[in-house]
Amino acid sequence: MDPRFKRSRDLLRAAVYELAGERPITEVSVSDLCRRAGVSRDTFYRHASSPLVLLTDSLAAEVMALAESYGDLPARSADGSSVFDPAERALLSHIAEHATVYRNALQPQIVAPLRASLEGMIRASLLEHVRRHPEILPDAVRAADEQTLTMLAAYAASGTVGAIEIWLAGDDLDVDRGSAVILAASPEWWHGHPID
Protein backbone atom coordinates (compact mmCIF):
# COMPACT_ATOMS: atom_id res chain seq x y z
CA MET A 1 0.00 0.00 0.00
CA ASP A 2 1.22 3.46 -0.88
CA PRO A 3 2.48 5.15 2.34
CA ARG A 4 0.60 8.40 1.59
CA PHE A 5 -2.65 6.51 0.99
CA LYS A 6 -2.17 4.61 4.26
CA ARG A 7 -1.38 7.81 6.18
CA SER A 8 -4.47 9.60 4.85
CA ARG A 9 -6.61 6.49 5.51
CA ASP A 10 -5.36 6.38 9.10
CA LEU A 11 -6.06 10.11 9.57
CA LEU A 12 -9.57 9.71 8.17
CA ARG A 13 -10.28 6.66 10.34
CA ALA A 14 -9.17 8.51 13.47
CA ALA A 15 -11.29 11.51 12.48
CA VAL A 16 -14.42 9.47 11.73
CA TYR A 17 -14.11 7.64 15.06
CA GLU A 18 -13.75 10.97 16.90
CA LEU A 19 -16.66 12.65 15.13
CA ALA A 20 -18.95 9.59 15.28
CA GLY A 21 -18.19 9.46 19.00
CA GLU A 22 -19.34 13.06 19.38
CA ARG A 23 -22.59 12.89 17.39
CA PRO A 24 -24.58 10.56 15.13
CA ILE A 25 -22.68 9.65 11.97
CA THR A 26 -25.66 10.87 9.92
CA GLU A 27 -24.85 14.40 11.17
CA VAL A 28 -21.16 14.25 10.18
CA SER A 29 -20.30 15.91 6.87
CA VAL A 30 -17.42 15.33 4.50
CA SER A 31 -16.21 18.86 5.33
CA ASP A 32 -16.21 18.01 9.05
CA LEU A 33 -14.11 14.93 8.38
CA CYS A 34 -11.67 16.72 6.10
CA ARG A 35 -11.13 19.50 8.65
CA ARG A 36 -10.63 17.03 11.51
CA ALA A 37 -8.30 14.78 9.50
CA GLY A 38 -6.44 17.64 7.84
CA VAL A 39 -7.02 16.27 4.33
CA SER A 40 -8.66 17.59 1.17
CA ARG A 41 -12.09 16.57 -0.12
CA ASP A 42 -10.36 14.92 -3.07
CA THR A 43 -8.34 12.80 -0.65
CA PHE A 44 -11.50 11.89 1.27
CA TYR A 45 -13.28 10.70 -1.88
CA ARG A 46 -10.33 8.48 -2.75
CA HIS A 47 -11.17 6.55 0.43
CA ALA A 48 -14.97 6.65 0.74
CA SER A 49 -18.12 8.03 -0.82
CA SER A 50 -19.61 9.29 2.46
CA PRO A 51 -18.86 9.57 6.19
CA LEU A 52 -21.14 6.58 6.86
CA VAL A 53 -19.29 4.46 4.31
CA LEU A 54 -15.95 5.49 5.84
CA LEU A 55 -17.17 4.56 9.33
CA THR A 56 -18.64 1.27 8.13
CA ASP A 57 -15.44 0.33 6.29
CA SER A 58 -13.26 1.32 9.25
CA LEU A 59 -15.22 -0.72 11.77
CA ALA A 60 -15.54 -3.60 9.30
CA ALA A 61 -11.75 -3.77 8.95
CA GLU A 62 -11.46 -4.27 12.71
CA VAL A 63 -14.23 -6.88 12.83
CA MET A 64 -12.75 -8.73 9.85
CA ALA A 65 -9.38 -8.88 11.62
CA LEU A 66 -11.16 -10.44 14.62
CA ALA A 67 -13.02 -12.89 12.40
CA GLU A 68 -9.78 -13.95 10.74
CA SER A 69 -8.07 -14.52 14.09
CA TYR A 70 -10.93 -16.80 15.18
CA GLY A 71 -11.63 -18.29 11.76
CA ASP A 72 -10.56 -21.86 12.39
CA LEU A 73 -12.65 -22.86 15.39
CA PRO A 74 -12.92 -26.55 16.24
CA ALA A 75 -16.16 -28.47 15.79
CA ARG A 76 -16.20 -29.48 19.44
CA SER A 77 -15.16 -27.81 22.66
CA ALA A 78 -12.81 -29.69 24.92
CA ASP A 79 -13.91 -27.99 28.14
CA GLY A 80 -17.69 -27.69 27.82
CA SER A 81 -17.72 -24.00 26.91
CA SER A 82 -18.98 -22.78 23.56
CA VAL A 83 -16.45 -22.90 20.73
CA PHE A 84 -17.64 -19.35 19.99
CA ASP A 85 -16.95 -18.01 23.50
CA PRO A 86 -13.56 -16.36 22.76
CA ALA A 87 -14.77 -14.92 19.44
CA GLU A 88 -18.00 -13.58 20.96
CA ARG A 89 -16.06 -11.91 23.78
CA ALA A 90 -13.64 -10.39 21.26
CA LEU A 91 -16.53 -9.02 19.18
CA LEU A 92 -18.24 -7.51 22.23
CA SER A 93 -14.91 -6.09 23.42
CA HIS A 94 -14.54 -4.37 20.03
CA ILE A 95 -18.08 -2.97 20.32
CA ALA A 96 -17.46 -1.82 23.91
CA GLU A 97 -14.21 -0.14 22.84
CA HIS A 98 -16.18 1.85 20.25
CA ALA A 99 -19.36 2.09 22.35
CA THR A 100 -20.01 5.79 21.80
CA VAL A 101 -19.58 5.36 18.04
CA TYR A 102 -21.98 2.40 17.91
CA ARG A 103 -24.42 4.06 20.32
CA ASN A 104 -24.47 7.20 18.20
CA ALA A 105 -25.36 4.95 15.25
CA LEU A 106 -28.46 3.53 17.02
CA GLN A 107 -31.73 4.89 15.58
CA PRO A 108 -33.04 2.68 17.44
CA GLN A 109 -31.23 0.00 15.44
CA ILE A 110 -27.70 0.46 14.17
CA VAL A 111 -27.88 2.47 10.92
CA ALA A 112 -28.54 0.17 7.99
CA PRO A 113 -25.15 0.04 6.22
CA LEU A 114 -23.26 -0.50 9.47
CA ARG A 115 -25.77 -3.09 10.68
CA ALA A 116 -25.70 -4.92 7.34
CA SER A 117 -21.90 -4.99 7.39
CA LEU A 118 -21.73 -6.36 10.93
CA GLU A 119 -24.47 -8.91 10.29
CA GLY A 120 -22.89 -9.96 7.00
CA MET A 121 -19.49 -10.58 8.57
CA ILE A 122 -20.99 -12.64 11.39
CA ARG A 123 -23.11 -14.60 8.89
CA ALA A 124 -20.07 -15.31 6.69
CA SER A 125 -18.05 -16.53 9.69
CA LEU A 126 -20.86 -18.81 10.87
CA LEU A 127 -21.43 -20.13 7.37
CA GLU A 128 -17.75 -20.94 6.99
CA HIS A 129 -17.80 -22.72 10.37
CA VAL A 130 -20.79 -24.91 9.48
CA ARG A 131 -19.30 -25.72 6.06
CA ARG A 132 -16.09 -26.89 7.75
CA HIS A 133 -17.99 -28.83 10.40
CA PRO A 134 -21.24 -30.21 8.92
CA GLU A 135 -21.21 -32.89 11.62
CA ILE A 136 -22.50 -30.30 14.14
CA LEU A 137 -25.78 -29.90 12.25
CA PRO A 138 -28.92 -31.26 13.89
CA ASP A 139 -30.49 -34.32 12.27
CA ALA A 140 -33.33 -32.25 10.76
CA VAL A 141 -30.85 -30.46 8.48
CA ARG A 142 -27.97 -32.95 8.36
CA ALA A 143 -28.04 -33.23 4.55
CA ALA A 144 -28.40 -29.49 4.18
CA ASP A 145 -27.96 -27.69 0.89
CA GLU A 146 -26.24 -24.30 0.61
CA GLN A 147 -29.47 -22.35 1.00
CA THR A 148 -30.29 -24.15 4.25
CA LEU A 149 -26.79 -23.54 5.63
CA THR A 150 -27.06 -19.87 4.70
CA MET A 151 -30.48 -19.63 6.37
CA LEU A 152 -29.07 -21.11 9.58
CA ALA A 153 -26.13 -18.69 9.58
CA ALA A 154 -28.36 -15.72 8.70
CA TYR A 155 -30.78 -16.50 11.52
CA ALA A 156 -27.96 -16.70 14.07
CA ALA A 157 -26.23 -13.57 12.76
CA SER A 158 -29.44 -11.51 12.82
CA GLY A 159 -30.15 -12.58 16.37
CA THR A 160 -26.61 -11.77 17.45
CA VAL A 161 -26.76 -8.26 16.00
CA GLY A 162 -30.22 -7.69 17.50
CA ALA A 163 -28.94 -8.75 20.91
CA ILE A 164 -25.89 -6.49 20.51
CA GLU A 165 -28.21 -3.54 19.81
CA ILE A 166 -30.14 -4.17 23.04
CA TRP A 167 -26.86 -4.65 24.96
CA LEU A 168 -25.50 -1.37 23.53
CA ALA A 169 -28.63 0.53 24.55
CA GLY A 170 -28.16 -0.54 28.18
CA ASP A 171 -26.10 1.16 30.86
CA ASP A 172 -23.68 -1.68 31.57
CA LEU A 173 -21.50 -3.03 28.76
CA ASP A 174 -20.36 -6.09 30.68
CA VAL A 175 -18.64 -8.12 27.95
CA ASP A 176 -18.75 -11.39 29.90
CA ARG A 177 -22.46 -11.04 30.69
CA GLY A 178 -23.36 -9.92 27.16
CA SER A 179 -21.44 -12.80 25.64
CA ALA A 180 -23.01 -15.32 28.01
CA VAL A 181 -26.53 -14.11 27.21
CA ILE A 182 -25.99 -14.15 23.44
CA LEU A 183 -24.47 -17.62 23.54
CA ALA A 184 -27.24 -18.89 25.84
CA ALA A 185 -29.81 -17.77 23.27
CA SER A 186 -28.11 -19.75 20.50
CA PRO A 187 -29.12 -23.32 19.65
CA GLU A 188 -26.97 -25.89 21.45
CA TRP A 189 -25.71 -27.50 18.26
CA TRP A 190 -23.78 -24.36 17.29
CA HIS A 191 -21.66 -24.45 20.44
CA GLY A 192 -19.74 -27.67 19.88
CA HIS A 193 -20.18 -28.97 23.40
CA PRO A 194 -18.56 -32.35 23.94
CA ILE A 195 -20.84 -35.31 23.28
CA ASP A 196 -21.24 -37.55 26.32
Feature tags:
196 residues, Arc Repressor Mutant, subunit A, 2 domains
Tell me the span between the first and last alpha carbons: 51 Å
Strand content: under 5%
Low-confidence stretches: none
Main sheet makeup? none
Shape: elongated
How would you spell out the order of helices and strands? HHHHHHHHHH
Overall radius of gyration: 19 Å
What portion of residues is helical?
55-70%
**If helices are DSSP runs of H or I spanning 4 or more residues, what is the number of helices?**
10
Overall number of structural domains:
2
Keywords: DNA-binding
Protein name: HTH tetR-type domain-containing protein
GO molecular function, one term: DNA binding
InterPro entries: Homeodomain-like_sf, HTH_TetR
Annotate the secondary structure layout.
Blueprint: H1 3-22, H2 30-37, H3 41-47, H4 51-69, H5 85-97, H6 99-104, H7 112-132, H8 146-169, H9 175-185, H10 188-191
Helix pairs in contact: 1-2, 1-4, 4-5, 4-7, 5-9, 7-8
DNA-binding region: 29-48
Pfam family, one: TetR_N
Organism: Amnibacterium flavum
Brief description of this entry?
Helix content is 68%, strand content 0%. The chain is an all-alpha fold and 196 residues long.
Walkthrough of the structure:
It is a single chain. The chain has 196 residues and is mostly helical. The protein has two domains: 3-47, Homeodomain-like (Arc Repressor Mutant, subunit A, Orthogonal Bundle), CATH 1.10.10; 52-191. The protein has ten helices and no strands. The chain is elongated, with a radius of gyration of 19 Å. The N and C termini lie far apart (51 Å). The model has no long low-confidence stretch (mean pLDDT 93).
